[in-house]
Design a protein that fits this description.
Elements (H helix, E strand, L loop, with lengths): L1 H22 L7 E3 L3 E4 L8 E4 L3 E5 L7 E4 L4 E5 L5 E4 L4 E5 L6 E6 L3 E3 L4 E6 L24 E4 L6 E6 L5 E6 L5 E7 L2 E6 L6 E9 L2 E10 L2
Parallel strand pairs: 1-3, 2-4, 3-5, 4-6, 5-7, 6-8, 7-9, 8-10, 9-11
Antiparallel strand pairs: 12-13, 13-16, 14-15, 14-17, 17-18
Length: about 230
């Protein structure tokens, strides 16, 4: 009887050890998105450890691979078509996953965290999620959009109009400015395809800044030709 009880206790300790290991990471983050705002992270850096600080919304929508995210309380992460991602979520953080591709996103989260979306996601509730942290400081910058990003812009160069595809399920605002910083257009971008009129703009290079809730999430250039 004692031998059987001892075996059961050993098995229970083993399970506890596994769960603790799943909810605890010892690798320090390599990149930190720290100041309050909305930012976009690009494709580069397979296998990176990324810390997302409180009051930061981070978009990873390029189909990245093998990243591990550490979400502090109040942080928000948006994933699209991502492969083999691991997300460790402390209380009151949020992760949203959408898109028609990608697989094997694994999420470990505290009970007060929120997980939205179910596309090929494995999630485990943890009593506590712990990981090394770095002081939250200014982020590394704003990524320029590409044809595979959350936004696609075409044709480029353009003549009388440009089409902007917004892949997010939320409305955004685009500001088109000229080379000296004057705003030429302010456009609301609904989810899906948006046609933006370029009539009256002179030939040249224009900057498109895309804003979500007052924060720039993408920036790029469009060339207008006549």
């Amino acid at each position: 009887m004692k031998t059987k009880l001892f075996s059961i206790l050993i098995a229970l300790f083993a399970v506890v050890g596994i769960n603790k290991a799943q909810c605890t990471k010892t690798q320090a983050p390599q990149t930190v998105f720290g100041s309050p705002g909305v930012y976009t992270v690009g494709l580069t850096g397979v296998g990176q450890y990324i810390q997302v600080c409180s009051n930061v919304r981070l978009y990873d929508t390029l189909g990245s691979n093998q990243r591990q995210y550490y979400l502090l309380p109040g942080a928000e992460l948006v994933l699209k078509n991502c492969f083999a991602q691991f997300v460790y979520m402390q209380g009151n953080s949020i992760v949203t996953r959408f898109g028609s591709g990608g697989n094997n996103t694994t999420i470990y989260y505290e009970t007060t965290a929120t997980v939205n979306g179910t596309l090929m996601v494995s999630s485990t509730t943890c009593a506590a999620v712990s990981f090394p942290t770095i002081a939250c400081s200014a982020p590394t910058g704003i990524k320029e959009y590409s044809q595979t990003d959350v936004l696609s812009v075409y044709p480029n160069p353009a003549n009388d109009h440009v089409i902007i595809n917004n892949d997010l399920a939320t409305s955004l605002t685009a500001y088109i400015t000229n080379s000296i910083g004057k705003t030429e257009r302010v456009v609301s971008l609904n989810s899906g395809k948006n046609t933006v009129d370029l009539y009256g703009l002179n030939e040249g290079i224009y900057i498109i800044n895309v804003v979500d809730k007052g924060n720039t999430i993408a920036r790029g250039k469009i060339m207008v030709v006549k």
